[in-house]
Design goal:
globular, 31% helix, Rossmann fold, alpha/beta, single chain, four-stranded antiparallel beta sheet
């Protein structure tokens, strides 16, 4: 794709940076006896975005799984322009499903035509084809054989990618039997020895340092895309502060999960950490540690098929003034993720992340829902091996409509799980890296700063966006995506779109 430079009216381009300004107008609201009094609040923000994208290294936890092998094959296919054949004909590689690579946003109007530009042409992003990939897995299978085991990609594509992948073997991973399903034990032939969690932490840190040095990358981002863990039992004195968390690791506390070990190692090595599964990795102690090290943490759980559809549809219903009274979601899948989720403890982690995804949408309409009122919301996941990587989902949405009527939507959704997840993995990585190059301040700040370390701005890509307690949680798919689009526009000095098209609304004479 030809690279474009979009020069916004509120931006100045220097050799190394884009410097832009943005004036925000919001309202402070005070309610008294049902009367809302608003006060205009203005703020002027200045953004500095470094334009030089780094040589980027990515380390995946779960490198040999369905997502990891598909991610690796996707980069290889795009980098080497590999074509392959199936019964539908000849295919060429792409990054469909990635908002950074395959979506566009409006930047203005030329005469009477709206102009849309791909996101990756508005701000400079790392080139996904140049990502250097490594990581860990509790299975020692090389990535070519692991790709075949996953049964995600077409046979011809597997054959053509295999020569590039056969020599990639995952590093040994952290394996605590209590945190993932017992049915995963037969895969665990590539694990760090012993039960000393401090030793495991130091081993992972050394892996990160060696990967960065051996591949001469400028920065490394770590992502958990391994099996869903059970929730750790959050304990005062263990998970609540950075000091307690490090002490608990040193003492090999039983409620320190593998994902917490990886996340802690990432933060201590100055690498952003992304949690792509629903378990509660990002505990308060880890967030405090990230704050002390000024390192981003992002999570939780990739928002791919059914949950993305749910947050969009419930937004449509509530926005239309209809009242969802029942949301029932049934899933069955046959990949290793489904096998792991057949265990009750791991299923509970997934159930929590999937069930909270509409809460803020419902709360946004007090006409429909009184305080404490909530629709019936049930989620069922079943492991059916013959389904493979194609997840089948059946959703029923029952809404109350005018004068006591009912509207029922039944939707059958078949989604190839890893082929939807991998573009989201890519976006999370590229957008997190971009955020590392952005500094900003408001009119009262004396110095520039980064975003808060809990990078909730990327909630569009997560089922259960992690925020701090005093930060609003946004799950509305449209609002989440709009926030990312607006960040690109603001950093490029382009006005935010209000969609009123007032210049075209005057009456014809």
């Amino acid at each position: 794709m030809t690279s474009l430079k979009v020069v916004g009216p509120f931006a100045q381009h220097t050799k190394d940076e884009i410097i832009s300004t943005y004036e925000s107008q919001t309202c402070d609201v005070v309610e008294s006896n049902g009367i809302y009094t608003t006060t205009l609040k203005k703020n002027t923000y200045t953004f500095k975005t470094k334009t030089a994208a780094p040589k980027l290294g990515v380390m995946l936890v779960g490198l040999g799984g369905n997502n990891g092998t598909t991610f690796c094959a996707g980069i290889i296919a795009n980098k080497h322009n590999i074509t392959w054949n199936s019964k539908r004909g000849t295919h060429t590689p792409n990054y469909l499903g990635s908002i950074t690579q395959s979506s566009a946003t409006k930047i203005g109007i030329s005469k009477n035509k709206e102009i849309y530009v791909p996101l990756n042409q508005i701000l400079p992003l790392a080139n996904p084809n140049d990502i250097v990939l490594g990581g860990w897995d509790i299975s020692s299978t090389n990535l070519a054989d692991a790709m075949r085991r996953a049964e995600v990609l077409e046979y011809d594509l597997q054959t053509k990618c295999a020569p590039y992948m056969k020599n990639i073997v995952p590093l040994p991973g952290v394996y605590y039997e209590d945190f993932i399903a017992a049915n995963q034990k037969d895969r665990a032939d590539n694990v760090l020895p012993g039960k000393d969690k401090k030793a495991h932490l130091e081993a992972i840190r050394e892996h990160i340092r060696n990967f960065k040095k051996d591949n001469q990358v400028d920065k490394v981002i770590i992502m958990w895309t391994a099996n869903t863990e059970r929730y750790c039992k959050v304990t005062t004195g263990v998970h609540d502060t950075a000091a307690n968390l490090l002490k608990a690791i040193e003492e090999s506390h039983p409620e320190i999960s593998p994902s917490i070990i990886y996340a802690t190692a990432s933060v201590l090595e100055g690498c952003s950490f992304i949690n792509g599964s629903p378990q509660n990795t990002l505990v308060d102690g880890l967030i405090e540690l990230a704050s002390k090290n000024n390192v981003f943490v992002v999570g939780d759980d990739f928002k791919t098929g059914q949950t993305k559809l749910k947050t969009a549809l419930v937004d449509v219903l509530v926005g239309a003034g209809l009242k969802p009274i029942s949301i029932v979601s049934y899933n069955h899948l046959g990949n290793n993720d489904g096998k792991n989720l057949s265990s009750e403890s791991q299923f509970k982690s997934k159930q929590i992340s999937k069930s909270s995804c509409v809460d803020d949408i419902l709360a946004s309409n007090p006409t429909l829902y009184k305080e404490g009122e909530h629709p019936d919301h049930e989620i069922i996941i079943k492991y059916v091996p013959s389904a493979g990587d194609s997840k089948k989902a059946l959703d029923e949405y029952v809404s109350e409509i005018f004068l006591g009527g009912r509207q029922v939507w039944n939707i059958y959704n078949v989604c190839e799980d890893s082929l939807l997840a991998v573009p989201i993995i890519l976006d999370l990585i590229l957008l997190t890296e971009l955020a590392e190059r952005i500094e900003w301040k408001d009119q009262d700040d004396k110095e520039f700063h980064k975003f808060d370390v809990v990078l909730s701005l990327l909630g569009y890509l997560c089922k259960a966006p992690r925020t701090r307690e005093d930060v609003p949680v946004i799950n509305s798919l449209f609002r989440q995506r709009n926030a990312i689009e607006n960040l690109f526009k603001i950093c490029a000095g382009i006005p935010i779109e209000d969609n009123l098209l007032l210049e075209f609304r005057k009456p014809y004479l």
